[in-house]
Known about the structure:
About 10% of the residues lie in helices and about 30% in strands. It is built from three helices and twelve strands. The model is unreliable at about 235-240 (pLDDT under 50).
Amino acid sequence: MCGRFSQAYTWEDVYAFSQPLTVPAAPAPNLQAHYNLSPTNEVDVIVWSGQGRALKKARWGLVPPWHKGPLKGVVPHINARLETIDTNKLFNRAFVKNRCIIPASGFYEWTGPKEDRIPHFISHANGTLMAFAGIWERWRNPETGEEIVSCSIITREANTWMSQLHDRMPAMLHPADFDHWLQGHGGKDLLMQPPPEMREWIVHKRMNRAGVGDDDPATCAPAPAEEPVAPEPPVQGSLI
């Protein structure tokens, strides 16, 4: 499961990460950093344009192209399971025709009981961007005529390291496989390779609320250790 993630980078960062983008924007855009992206937010995706790799925007939460109702009624399909992506009718068309890479500076998972969830930030061990494998679709809103591009992050079974936090994790691509993935030459095997080495730390619980701190770098910073609570002095005359 991946229900929140971060895209905090400059145009130069993502341009170099994509090896580079072969259809650069002109002039280079001033990208806004996001530290707490939630379902239905607009996110960056890298797609194959026919001429090369291009950076586009997409709504996070796949809307199937055959959906007939209003956008408000769509369940946001933010994740697509790798194990069934080629057979699930929600995703198999996009898996064949519309693949993308979702650059990420990290993602969040939670541990602890439901009433006291502890958020963790997971990122590449060396601080560079991660390449989440994704799929995308186009859908036209019947109420407004607006075309909406939407996407899902593909998830896989967690590796040994990640399983300490959750049993699922984003499927990640290695740079050498970017074009194979985007152009449809590679199959699910590309997403089963060992992910990059990762690191994690606990962050402030304020990010448990969707959208809170999305523009604040402190959202994904290590939470300060809680100060020990000093014992209260005994009441005079009581038995110790």
